[in-house]
Amino acid sequence: MEMETDRREEEEEIRERYVLSMERIRAMKEETAVSAPFYDYFQRTADFILEAADFAESIRLGRLEERPLSELQEQNRRLYADIEGEAYKSSYANPAYAARLLGEGYGQILSFLYTEIRGMAAWAAEQRYEDLTMAAELFIEIYNAFEEGLPSAKSLRQTIYWYVSDYCDVFIPQRIREQLDPSLSFARDIVCGADLSEPRYLYRFGEYISENELETSRFLAGLPKERIDAMASTFTEGYRLGFVNAGIDLGKKKTVNIRYSLGFERVVRSAIAQFENMGLSSILYREARHSLNRRPQGNPGYCSTPPSKQYVFDHKEDSALYLDRKLVERRLSVLHGAYEQYKELAAVHAGPAVMEIFGEKPFLPESCPEALKLDEKQQELSVFYNSESGRLANQYIPGDERSFTIIAWPIPEIGENFEEIFEEIVKINNLDYRLYQGIQQKLIDALDEGEYVEIKGAGANRTDLRVQLQRPQNPGKETAFENCVADVNIPVGEVFTSPKLAGTEGVLHVSEVYLNDLKYLDLELTFRDGRIASYSCRNFEDPEENRKFIKNNVLFNHDTLPLGEFAIGTNTTAYMTAKRYGIGPKLPILIAEKMGPHFAVGDTCYSWSEDNPTYNPDGKQIMAKDNECSVLRKEDVSKAYFNCHTDITIPYDELDSITVVRPDGGRISLIEKGRFVLPGTEELNRPFDEEAR
């Protein structure tokens, strides 16, 4: 009773602060105390805050349900119009525009502030008045500084720093709870309770709603329930099989996190019911909005297609404004306390089930020199924090007690053949795994004979790579490669291993590849003893800028990364589907990695679960789960993991050969001229032959 009273008093206090802050911001609209060029910035930012406040109020009073679709769409447009498409170029969210109008230093700080405030659209939807109030009060504090004259950029940075530091113990525990507590059911309540037959419900999320979300929702609304249930079953059954194949007891778990893109609610609703039948409550949490909680390796959670990918790219390193060692130590302390607070929920969490989308126009980012960038010391701090936070996560949600699954579907932006492509992808996601299992075993048997594998590119592809293999000591009972069927990684179609680093040498090159939502031209990595020794691409004119781009977005600010995985994709059906519709560059890595040999830089596929025995369908135990980096976990876990894993695929049409080389120098050809030549694998060439006819 006392706790309930305290909570009610706290909510009343927050409500009072919120009302006062909104009154102050409304008063700003009538004031002229701030001089040019900053006057326009504060006016436009105040307009956004008041629009978000109107959105929050309409939800609080239940008016959202009364509004016609056209009004919902118009309000959504007002909330996101200034960062949508070409409008972003003249938005204060754009660091280049802000710096040009407001001045170097001031522009970056105020662009950061506006980006942080933009989270208010999401917090309004969830009625999170504490978050709304904290953002509004920060805005007022910065505004007040300009009322008194021109404050120094240093003093504004300090204000931002103390905002982040002071509210660290709010933002971080809140984020951990979102990931673990099924009682926070905002999104799940919409998915399970709304009328999904027409798209009005989409506007309740507070996310940007484009034609992708609207058309996906309408398309799925037209499919029969049995089709929807079958799509969801491929997804949920893959998740269950992941636990079975890893030998993990799913019966000890109570929650699963579903990550998806808006528009797919009918499939998610079915998946929630199917997970419920497995004894799992589904948790749906949003992509992080606070800068403090966003991650350089990606921003997990449910989301919509972004109004501007350049906007997302320009703000990837916003933490450069405030990151220092003292704050990192505080963040880790608060994070540890949060996990301790929610340790019972963490102990029964099973891991993520992810629905990816693809079909958006490949994004080639533009250079933005004005965007905030981590300096060298901050890069080291970022790497340290990610390592330590990963260790903490594993301490409370052990890697050998959790699993995952990932599936991908196209969205309407893929083109006029969307519905046809969607049908093809559903078929690909449900290919006969037993056929592939047998063919892939032929590849594994040959690979297990090898000391190393040679991979060579064709034509302009400069790949010339030697991958050193770990050799089974007991070939009758052990294998180095996993026979990957459609469980955690849907669709079917690869064999993979953790290679030895010592002896792995050469060049990996691909003419065009799409990694972590970013497009790379002529990406080239050179390996020495299994670690990246040099790298380049051709995205920008300046070679140094290309190097920084790769370091930030492939190496995630590490000085080097090991080759954590070598794999051979076997899904030639997916490859020829991509060729037929011209969608190769739009495919997610989840499908692209099955369409040729691929190489992952970073952690192995078995990170944090190396000691869990894993077996192939033929009963052999997979022994190649560690490499020279991950094995260091036994001495110093901070040296073992990199908290990233990025797959880079060479498509068949850029591939000349893959050859297994035995210890005695004997050679076994697996692929020649981009075609499978190992006896027993000829079936994989059938899609090539059918397309040729």
In words, what does this structure look like?
This protein is an alpha+beta fold and 693 residues long. It has 3 domains: 11-166; 179-405, no CATH class; 431-692, no CATH class. It contains 23 helices and 19 strands. An 8-stranded antiparallel sheet has the order 12-11-10-6-5-17-18-19, covered by helices on one side. A hairpin with a 2-residue loop joins strand 10 (500-515) and strand 11. Helix 1 crosses helix 2. It is globular and about 80 Å long.
Q: Unreliable stretches, pLDDT < 50, 5 or more residues?
A: none
Residue share in helix: 40-55%
Largest sheet properties: 8 strands, antiparallel
Number of domains: 3
Number of separate strands: 19
In spatial order, strands of the major sheet run 12-11-10-6-5-17-18-19
Basic shape: globular
C-alpha-based Rg, rounded: 26 Å
Mean pLDDT: 94
Proportion of strand residues: 15-25%
- How far the N terminus sits from the C terminus, by CA atoms, comes to 76 Å
Architecture blueprint of SSEs:
Layout: H1 2-28, H2 38-60, H3 69-80, H4 95-102, H5 106-117, H6 120-125, H7 129-147, H8 153-166, H9 168-180, H10 186-193, H11 211-221, H12 225-246, E1 255-259, H13 265-277, E2 281-283, H14 309-314, H15 325-341, H16 343-347, E3 349-358, H17 376-396, E4 405-410, H18 418-429, H19 433-447, E5 452-457, E6 464-468, E7 478-479, E8 482-484, E9 494-497, E10 500-515, E11 518-528, E12 531-536, H20 543-553, E13 563-569, H21 572-581, H22 589-592, E14 597-602, E15 621-622, E16 645-649, E17 655-661, E18 667-672, E19 675-676, H23 686-692
Parallel strand pairs: 1-2, 1-3, 3-4, 7-15
Antiparallel strand pairs: 5-6, 5-17, 6-10, 8-9, 9-13, 10-11, 11-12, 13-14, 14-16, 17-18, 18-19
